[in-house]
């Protein structure tokens, strides 16, 4: 498992790439080995994921009758939704890249997507905590959430633009494939598994 210093090194590389500084490539392992190791990002985001799960459980209970308690499989179902959100967009992006004979970009796209999720997972968690502590500030927090989404889209596109050798269309398509399907899939899976807040 990558240590904190290594994760910081990767994140600095991502920040450099987001600022279109090619030196950022020297701080990322974009090989097949680096791609596999980048899935440790899931472990690094787990504390943030756990806070999100607790919040989703609270939202779910708000729509249920008094005294209702979800079964022991509630968190297992949330874990299934989370896992699908990590894997599905990568698979879709991989299929696209292989179909376009641009599979050389695949390891780098996975590495970027996985490690970039770490800081944004914690940023979203901060907003969740603020929403719980300051429910009256929901409109402001919603604006902050939109700003965070915009920042994620912008950073991912700018980094993938360099990864894809400055091909705008390829970078834009990959950005959408890595961000939009997880949102749609999470919504559908939560409804299908019966854990969507009413």
Describe the protein's architecture and organization.
- This is Yip1 domain-containing protein.
- Keywords: Membrane, Transmembrane, Transmembrane helix.
- With 198 residues, this protein is mostly helical.
- It has one domain.
- It is built from seven helices and no strands.
- Helix 3 packs parallel to helix 5 and helix 6 packs across helix 7.
- The longest helix is centred in the middle third of the chain and has 28 residues.
- The radius of gyration is 18 Å and the shape is globular.
- The N and C termini lie far apart (38 Å).
- The mean pLDDT is 91.
How would you summarize the topology of this molecule?
Blueprint: H1 4-18, H2 32-37, H3 41-62, H4 74-99, H5 106-133, H6 138-163, H7 168-192
Main traits of this protein?
198 residues, mainly alpha
Low-confidence stretches: none
Number of strands: 0
Residue share in helix:
over 70%
Distance between the termini: 38 Å
If you compute it from the alpha carbons, what radius of gyration comes out, rounded to the nearest whole angstrom?
Answer: 18 Å
- The helix-and-strand class reads mainly alpha
Which sequence of SSEs, written as H and E, runs from N to C? HHHHHHH
Task: Sketch the major β-sheet.
Answer: none
Q: Average pLDDT across residues? A: 91
- Shape assignment: globular
Percent strand: under 5%
Instruction: Tell me the count of domains.
Output: 1
User: What's the total helix number?
Assistant: 7
């Amino acid at each position: 498992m990558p240590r904190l210093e290594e994760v910081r090194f990767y994140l600095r590389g991502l920040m450099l790439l987001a600022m279109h500084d090619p030196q950022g490539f020297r701080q990322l392992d974009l090989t097949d080995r680096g791609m596999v190791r980048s899935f440790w990002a899931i472990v690094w985001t787990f504390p943030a994921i756990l806070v999100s799960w607790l919040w989703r459980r609270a939202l779910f209970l708000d729509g249920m009758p008094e005294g209702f308690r979800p079964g022991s499989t509630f968190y297992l179902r949330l874990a299934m939704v989370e896992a699908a959100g990590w894997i599905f967009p990568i698979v879709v992006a991989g299929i696209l890249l292989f179909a376009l004979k641009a599979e050389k970009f695949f390891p780098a796209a996975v590495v970027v997507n996985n490690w970039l999720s770490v800081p944004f997972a914690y940023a979203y968690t901060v907003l969740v905590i603020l929403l719980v502590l300051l429910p009256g500030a929901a409109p402001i927090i919603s604006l902050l959430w939109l700003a965070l989404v915009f920042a994620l889209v912008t950073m991912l596109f700018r980094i993938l633009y360099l990864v894809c050798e400055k091909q705008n269309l390829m970078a834009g398509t990959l950005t959408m494939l890595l961000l939009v399907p997880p949102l749609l899939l999470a919504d559908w899976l939560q409804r299908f598994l019966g854990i969507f807040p009413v």
